[in-house]
Amino acid sequence: MITIIPEAPENVAAFSATGEVTKENFENLVIPHVKKKVEEFDELNYLLYLDTNLGNFTAGAWLQDMLLGLKNLTKWNRAAIVTDNESVQNFTDIFSVLMPGEFKSFPKENLYNALYWCKNGNEVEV
């Protein structure tokens, strides 16, 4: 299931993934919310808090996620993946070289920092 993170900054499309993530989650929630943000801000700042195993994403969910990226290819500004899965963190950091915009991984304990970075490109100073 995917839900919107309500405390996200206004210019960030932020989602939390828990349990099973389906194609319908993307079609009914993620894609319309992302479309609204891109229309409003003319760029995409995106955050996904991954609180589920990647195996819980159905094939349809992966396809919708990929289509989301392709549809908004020129609008990507910043994208944060928040997870404690090191493989996903490494993939996100490598993926940032291939895609327009900035992609960055954050450990779960740094959700606030990830939201702040998505909003304005800076991290919170500790």
Describe the structure.
InterPro entries: SpoIIAA-like, SpoIIAA-like_sf, STAS_dom_sf. Pfam families: SpoIIAA-like. This is STAS/SEC14 domain-containing protein. This protein has 126 residues and is of the alpha/beta class. It has one domain (2-120). It has helices at 23-41, 59-71, 86-98, 111-120, and strands at residues 2-4, 13-18, 44-51, 76-82, 102-106. The chain has a 5-stranded mixed sheet with strand order 1-2-3-4-5, with helices on both faces. The radius of gyration is 13 Å and the shape is globular. The model has no long low-confidence stretch (mean pLDDT 83).
Query: Strand order within the widest sheet?
Result: 1-2-3-4-5
Estimate percent helicity.
Answer: 40-55%
How far apart lie the N and C ends? 32 Å
Count the domains.
1
| Count of discrete alpha- or pi-helical segments spanning 4 or more residues | 4
Strand content: 15-25%
Low-confidence stretches: none
> Sheet with the most strands?
5 strands, mixed
**Number of β-strand runs:** 5
The computed structural class is: alpha/beta
The coarse silhouette is globular
Q: H/E series, N to C? A: EEHEHEHEH
Gyration radius (Cα, Å) is 13 Å
Mean pLDDT: 83
Pfam family, one: SpoIIAA-like
Protein name: STAS/SEC14 domain-containing protein
Short description:
The protein has four helices and five strands; from the N terminus they run E-E-H-E-H-E-H-E-H.
Topology:
Blueprint: E1 2-4, E2 13-18, H1 23-41, E3 44-51, H2 59-71, E4 76-82, H3 86-98, E5 102-106, H4 111-120
Parallel strand pairs: 2-3, 3-4, 4-5
Antiparallel strand pairs: 1-2
Helix pairs in contact: 1-2
